[in-house]
TrEMBL record:
This is COMM domain-containing protein 3. PROSITE patterns: COMM. InterPro entries: COMM (IPR017920), COMMD3 (IPR037355). Pfam families: COMM_domain, COMM_HN. Belongs to the COMM domain-containing protein 3 family. It comes from the Eukaryota. GO terms for biological process: sodium ion transport. Residues 124-191 form the COMM domain. It comes from Oreochromis aureus (Israeli tilapia).
Amino acid sequence: MELSESVQRGLQSLADQSVFDHGSFQVLVDVSFRSLLSSHGDPTVLGQPEFKQIDQILLKQSHTAAVTFILEAVKQNADQSTISSSLEELTFSAERTEIFYSAYQKHKKDLERLLASIGRGLPHITDASWRLEYHMKNGQVDKVNDPFYLISLNTENEGSSEDINFTCTVEQLQDLVGKLKDAAKTMEKASQM
C-alpha cells in the first residue's frame, strides 16, 4: 500500500514497543476502529487511562496514521498478506500485526458499508433560472457592448438544497447547452441498451 511519510512515521511509532506497550497498543487499535464507526466522533476517545504516559502529539499522530491505514486497507479490499507485509515493513511484530488484522476482520464489513455510503449521491438540478445582462462600458474602455448571462441552478441532494450561480458569455452558454444535449443523448442511448 502507498502511504505518506507522516502515516509511515505514525505507524512506526505505534509499532515501537517502548512507546506503546502491549496494552496501550491494543487499546489504540480498538479506539481507531471505534472512532471510524462512531456516528458522533467522540473527541475524548484518546483520553483513555492507558495513554497517560504517552506524549499526546505522538498519540494523535499514531491514531491518525492507524485510521488512515485502516481506511486505505478497506478501500483497497486488502487481504491478510497485504496488511501483514505492509505492517511488517513498518517494523510491526508478528503479534501486533495479528492483533491489528483481527480487529480489521472484525470491523471490515461495517467499514465497507460506511465507505460505500460516503459521496455517492450527486446533486440533482431541480430548477434553473437565467438573466441577460449587458456591459455597456468598463473602467478601461468606453464601449464594451458585451452581453452575458447570470445562471442560477437550484440543486437538491439528500433533502438539502443549494443554489449554484455563475456567469457566462453567449459562446460559453452555447457550449454548455451543446454539452448538456450530448449528455442527454448519451444517457438515452445507455438506457436503451
